Amino acid sequence: MSEIFDIVDEKGRPTGETVSRDEAHEKGIRHRTAHIWVVRKEGGKVQMLLQKRARDKDSFPGCYDTSSAGHIQAGDEPLESARRELFEELGIVAGENDLDFAGCFAIEYEKVFHGKLFHDNEVAFVYMYSGPVDSAELTLQAEEVESVAWFDVEELQGLLDPRDSRFCVPMAGFLLGKKWCDRFMKER
Q: Which residue of 41, 92, 153, 162 shows the fewest CB atoms closer than 10 Å?
């Protein structure tokens, strides 16, 4: 059974209509996702945790991506979806006040994966998590995440621009996260 998403306007507001996951990606119908960056300060630098996507994912298999991300189901709110994805993919239990909203950005592309056209058109809601995380203690969702690794923010920016093919991190999402991290460094 296919997941059902709210169709949204350019700001990510539901229109009152829904669409199946399959149809959304076949036709490029705009829907919402939640992206969560897990960050820490280590050795005087800010690091971001990236997940390496499972090899059989329907888009960007085997590539490094945002710490945790997923579709927002019809009727759900972005924050509750972000908390659910963080727990499902990495085993991190985050309270409502543990995630800071960093902003939204649009994603739209067409690309072929596994011999099939994938058309993504989404508004991503970005959240930041800075609670203590031991990556060796995470519970990875095997069908979603192959592994995780920490990257210094400045090093990561160099890997994303120009794009290193091992990474599929959306640049606009990274820049929102980096802007938040710049404030994070000053506050701590």
A: 162
Parallel, antiparallel, or unpaired: how do β-strands 4-8 and 99-113 relate?
unpaired
Contacts of 62 (CB under 8 A, 6+ apart): 52, 53, 54, 55, 146
Which among 60, 179, 188 has a CA at the least distance from the CA of 128?
A: 179
CB 47 within 8 A of CB 130: no
Distance from C-alpha of 24 to C-alpha of 3, rounded to nearest angstrom: 10
C-alpha–C-alpha distance, residues 20 and 3, integer Å: 6
64 touches 146 (CB < 8 A): no
Predicted structure pTM score: 0.95
In this prediction, residue 30 carries a pLDDT of 98
Q: For residue 186, what pLDDT is reported?
A: 77
Spatial separation of the C-alpha atoms in residues 147 and 103, rounded to whole Å: 26
Three-state SS across 109-148?
EEEEECCEEEEEEEEEEEEEECCCCCHHHCCCCCCCEEEE
Cα torsion through 28, 65, 154, 135, rounded to 10? 150
Counting Cβ atoms within 10 Å, is residue 177 exposed (0-12), middle (13-18) or buried (19+)?
A: buried
User: Which residues does the chain have with pLDDT short of 50?
Assistant: none
Which tokens go with 145? 């995440």
Residue 109 pLDDT: 95
